[in-house]
Amino acid sequence: MIIDSHCHLKHGDAEGTEYSADEIVEVMDAAGIDRSVVFAMQTTTRRSIELASVAVAKYPDRLIPYVYALPHYDRPVLPELQDALEGGFFGIKIHIGECRLREHISDPVFDLAAAMDAPVLMDLAGDLGTAKRLARDFPDTKLIIAHLGQYKGTNEPLIDEFISVAEHHDNVWLDASGVVMAYMIAEAVNRVGAERVMFGIDGPHPKPDPVSYAEYAIKQINMLKIADSDKEMVLGGSVQRLLEM
Ligand SMILES: [Zn+2]
User: What does the pLDDT look like over 180-218, one tens digit per residue?
Assistant: First the structure.
């Protein structure tokens, strides 16, 4: 089974690109993806719940919802996150880009995630210090480091350090989406184990076209010099285990 662990109903790009459940499932069918973790970002927590709820209601056997955590002036967000997790959402997405992840922003979310036993998929944009602090201070929170630490990162020593964070903390998983140095995914598997490395498309993406983009991400895993059983684990087994599906 192939499970995409990182798929956007709404992206964090400048345009705030949105994709419908139909568009996402169409790409999944064409690329051979069985299930996808879906979430919206660059929007309120409440709206992220609405978007994912609508998508999952239409494709309950294909789509797996995460809720987006973003502080709000008008209303507290933690109860919204908790309601979503109690109502069938599987995890939390949080991103350093829309709101810096200082302690008062990240820590209440990490406490809630531990209490609810829900993973936090976090885009750290290369902020190694924050990754180390959260991994160390929240041993009961399952932290998924997006993009091996930095989206399309080419700073090999930095990516190496993020892999080390997962090596030293068994509450840390590595998301292999949006990775250009594919050999670092193999490095992560060798050092951390395939059970804690997970494949994702970070799509849909229009170039060259959404299906080719998804197929390329799968191919990137299949081309790695790792055991076939490890490829299967990265392509779906690891997220399946993490989410206890
Ligand atoms: Zn993403």
Answer: 999 999 999 999 999 999 999 999 999 999 999 999 999
| 8 A C-beta contact, residue 93 and residue 66 | yes
Q: How far is the CA of 223 from the centre of ligand 1 (A)?
A: 22
What global pTM score does this model have? 0.97
Distance from the alpha carbon of residue 152 to the mean position of ligand 1, in angstroms: 11
Q: Are 228 and 219 in contact (CB under 8 A)?
A: no
Q: How far apart are the CA of 145 and the centre of ligand 1, in A?
A: 11
Handedness of CA 209, 214, 215, 219 (dihedral sign): positive
Q: Which domains does the chain have, with CATH numbers?
A: 3-242 (3.20.20.140)
pLDDT score of 38 more than 90 = yes
Confidence of residue 101 (pLDDT cuts 50, 70, 90): confident
Residue 227 CA to ligand 1 centre (angstroms): 27
The answer to whether residues 5 and 239 touch, using CB atoms and an 8 Å cutoff, is yes
Distance from the alpha carbon of residue 75 to the mean position of ligand 1, in angstroms: 26
